[in-house]
Write a structure and sequence with these properties.
185 residues; 7 helices
Amino acid sequence: LYLIKSFQGVKPKHIPTIMDALVNLIQKDDFLMTELYLSENKLKTDIHNFINALGSNQHLQVLDISNNMMGDIGARLLAKALQINNKLKTIIMDRNLITLQGYSDIVYALENNYSLRHIPFPLFDIAPSLKNHPDKADSIMRKMQEYLHRNGSGVKRQPGQGFRLQQGFLFSATHQLIDKLVTET
């Protein structure tokens, strides 16, 4: 499904409704979408519930969420989803205003994620950190590449590693609000 630049010209008040429908769509067991391109939409916080719902999706393998300005909160939600999701193979996510802290959260999640194999180098997001904190940025990006390489080489998950989510699990509005508040503090 290609939704690249699809939100241009859409009134901001309608975007949450569209994103809620997309969340409901990816959470359906009988919706077998394997690729979603949601790039260049500058959704900011409107993409957070979608990212949060990725944990329960059992079909999506390729996701492009680049240039949506989701920030470190979006990265933390993505990290949480990656601890559960065992189907995603590729995520394209540059130009999201993610700092080293956000990438550090993603790297932490990749420790127990054995399915994700490809994240193109986030040149735009990481460039400021390479100037200000080159050693730390290099360390985080190398660790991310190590985990992705491990996953591409066929190493399997050890028993007891990772988390599992029941199929069809839906976050209630209250749970989503509490989770959002917790991630903001």
